[in-house]
Design goal:
CATH class: Alpha Beta
Structural class: alpha/beta
Shape: globular
CATH topology: Rossmann fold
Number of domains: 1
Radius of gyration: 17 Å
Bound molecules: adenosine-5'-triphosphate, magnesium ion
Number of strands: 8
Strand content: 15-25%
Strand order of the largest sheet: 3-4-2-5-1-6-7-8
């Protein structure tokens, strides 16, 4: 199992829309995918898909249900763990809660090839927790200078605090491919100067497309609504790159669970 956290410094850069379409594209490549809505307290993934799951992660933490009972199967061939609403923090789990969660994750996650964390924006402990927990990390930003600066800040804090060294970058809402590449090079330049130990790989750029808003409004994934558009082919390109970048990780689940208990 591979675990990937999707995060950003600045909010509203397109994480949740991307995660849903990445899950769909991976499913179309015969991968079993589970999205963990890690934007805790602000259910996002289920709303974007027009679902109203009865149960969410809070029912597991209060020991009312087990993890497998709250997994929601969508019509799109991937599953989700809903976040629900109401502030909770997974960073502050007691060691008993962690062990309970570990046992349940071990049983449930072994059925999946990919676990995708849709994080909230910012540099809170909760976000850093998921960045550290996941085996791989995708940082999203847009061409706005504030978003670029915040992406850099997130990478810097994750490195300074938890020694997280490798990240992927996606630049969303670009007007052309060159713009995305330039932004990647700009961030890389600063990293090489000030944080040379960090490895940042470019996954690609995603074009600005009004269809994303329409997809969210209609609560249907973009890839389903506009399969022929450039944005859909770019999402598929990134998906294939991810599949090639790292082969299936046999020890992925084991190391994931070790990190959970250690945190
Ligand atoms: N490629 C794109 N082209 C045009 N608009 C986009 C694109 N990607 C996302 N958006 C728009 O950006 C807005 C935010 O998207 P989304 O909710 O996915 O971002 P987010 O990063 O998950 O936000 P948050 O930080 O609040 O969780 C939405 O209105 C969406 O339509
Ligand atoms: Mg979101």
């Amino acid at each position: 199992m591979r675990s990937i956290a999707i995060a950003s410094g600045k909010g509203g850069v397109g994480k949740t829309s991307f995660v849903i379409n990445l899950a769909l594209a991976l499913a179309q490549c015969n991968q079993k995918v589970l999205i963990f809505d890690a934007d805790l307290g602000l259910a996002n993934v289920d709303v974007m898909l027009g679902l109203s799951p009865k149960f969410d992660i809070r029912h597991v933490l209060t020991e009312k249900l087990s993890l497998k009972d709250i997994i929601y199967t969508t019509d799109y061939n991937f599953d989700i763990i809903p976040a629900g609403s109401g502030a909770i923090e997974l960073v502050n789990l007691s060691s008993n809660q962690k062990l309970l969660l570990k046992a349940q994750m071990e049983e449930t996650f072994k059925n999946y090839d990919f676990l995708l964390f849709d994080s909230s924006a910012g540099i809170s402990e909760n976000v850093l927790f998921f960045l550290l927990l996941a085996g791989e990390r995708i940082i999203l930003c847009t061409p706005e200078p504030t978003s670029i600066a915040d992406a850099y800040a997130l990478i810097k804090v994750a490195y300074k605090k938890y020694k997280i060294k490798d990240f992927y970058l996606i630049v969303n809402m670009i007007s052309n491919n060159l713009e995305g590449k330039r932004i990647y090079q700009q961030i890389l330049y600063v990293l090489e100067r000030f944080l040379p130990e960090i490895k940042l790989s470019y996954l690609g750029g995603l074009p600005y497309d009004e269809g994303v808003k329409k997809a969210i409004k209609s609560q249907i994934p973009y890839l389903i609504l506009y399969p022929e558009n450039t944005l859909s082919s770019k999402i598929k390109e990134i998906t294939l790159k991810l599949l090639k970048f790292n082969p299936q990780d046999d020890k992925g689940l084991e190391t994931f669970l070790e990190r959970l208990v250690k945190f």
